[in-house]
Design a protein that fits this description.
mainly beta, Jelly Rolls, Immunoglobulin-like, six-stranded antiparallel beta sheet, four-stranded antiparallel beta sheet, 5 helices, 19 strands, 10% helix, 44% strand, globular
């Protein structure tokens, strides 16, 4: 698997504009409309005096981001967005890929046949979450006008504090707030990895339920590798997948347990799950994981 970041740091040229206007302005990705406007001197600092009131128009408007980048298509290609905030329509080279309505989740779209060799254009149109919330609340009132937060904010999957709190301003962000990238695969990819742990008699069993997405009939082998927090020992196992699924597990005696703050240390194991076809790694996922018994979880 190959990954190509589409952030500003990867030399992708990003611009943005208020929808319906002609002026494109420089943008930073990841980022947001408020921070881009502030960097350009188009709005005052919303955290000074009553400037919060002077910038309410930003979240009440629709905005569009445009990114121009180079690509070399091959194999199976996906556009992956880890965080779009929030109501967005995504277009690649003029073709609509889909829409989003949840700032917290990852979205993935296949782009085979749409992505070009050479220059490509990605456009993301963000609709106003404020207008959406007010419209939905007018149809079915669920939140009263308290002055503390925007009415109707319960209708959208967006951080509640964005709409105001007793300690925070009403400044609902808009934009590409997490990584955006292209992913390229040959024969298969890891569609899902579900990690679990079971503790018994001083031993923890770390298991990984693996589900793969494949595009040919090449046999797939899943690998699980767990490395101790100090890096001195590694536990490994592998398993040929039956169809597209399989479950792997390793046993660790006398594990280094993770404790809540104030109760002990917080050692983390490095867990790696990889997928191979004919000896070639197709995909890999890596996470850090604490060994925690049920009792540990409820101490805090």
């Amino acid at each position: 698997m190959k990954s190509q970041s589409l952030s500003s740091a990867s030399q992708v040229v990003w611009t943005f504009r208020q929808a319906g206007t002609d002026e494109w302005m420089p943008a930073t990705v990841p980022g947001g409309v408020h921070t881009d406007l502030l960097a350009l001197g188009r709005i005052p600092d919303p955290f000074v005096a009553d400037n919060e009131l002077k910038v309410q128009w930003v979240a009440e408007a629709d905005w569009e981001y445009r990114g121009v980048f180079e690509a070399s298509p091959g194999g199976r290609m996906f556009l992956v967005a880890d965080g779009l905030d929030t109501l967005a329509e995504v277009y690649l080279n003029g073709q609509r890929l889909g829409e989003t309505e949840n700032m917290f989740r990852t979205y993935r779209w296949p782009v085979d046949g749409i992505l070009r060799s050479g220059q490509n254009e990605l456009r993301i149109l963000f609709r106003s979450a404020v207008k959406y919330c007010l419209k939905r609340n007018a149809e079915k009132p669920l939140t009263p006008k308290t002055g503390m937060s925007l009415e109707g904010s319960v209708f959208v999957r967006k951080a509640p504090c964005h709409f105001g709190w007793d300690w925070g301003p009403k400044l609902p962000p808009i934009g590409i707030w997490r990584d955006l990238r292209l992913e390229q695969y040959a024969s298969a990819r890891l569609e899902d990895v579900h990690l679990r742990q079971q503790h018994r008699n001083g031993t923890v069993t770390l298991s990984a339920a693996v589900r793969a997405e494949r595009w040919d009939n090449v046999p797939l082998v899943a690998h699980l590798k767990v490395t101790t927090p100090n890096g001195r020992r590694t536990y490994e196992t592998h398993l040929p997948l039956e169809g597209n699924q399989g479950q792997l597990a390793v046993r660790i005696r006398n594990p280094q347990l993770w404790w809540p703050n104030g109760y002990g240390e917080q050692p983390l194991y490095d867990v790696e799950v990889s997928l191979e076809a004919e000896g070639t790694v197709q995909d890999r996922k890596q996470v850090k994981m604490g060994a925690k018994t049920p009792a540990h979880r409820y101490l805090a």
